[in-house]
């Protein structure tokens, strides 16, 4: 995911803005809080697979539901790490 997806490309239906360019007030409000990036938060080997079969997408509406889905597979700690990392990056980017 880190190598194959062009995270900085324009998203369908959104206007691409170069770094350092000024946005009008409406655009700033629409794009506020939206990050389009992928960050590696953990890499390693585990003793036992947590997920079996074909990969699939599960859509959830909030972070609590995302954690519950992963908890069913015994890997809620993956979500905890990702969530904590995203909060950390938001704090850094806002300062």
Automatic annotation (TrEMBL):
Where does the Small nuclear ribonucleoprotein Prp3 C-terminal domain start and stop, copy by copy?
1-81
- InterPro entries recorded for this chain? Prp3, Prp3_C
Any GO BP: mRNA splicing, via spliceosome
Its cellular-component GO annotations read: U4/U6 x U5 tri-snRNP complex
Cleavable signal peptide:
none
Annotated protein name in UniProt: Small nuclear ribonucleoprotein Prp3 C-terminal domain-containing protein
Q: What is the lineage of its organism?
A: Eukaryota, Metazoa, Ecdysozoa, Nematoda, Chromadorea
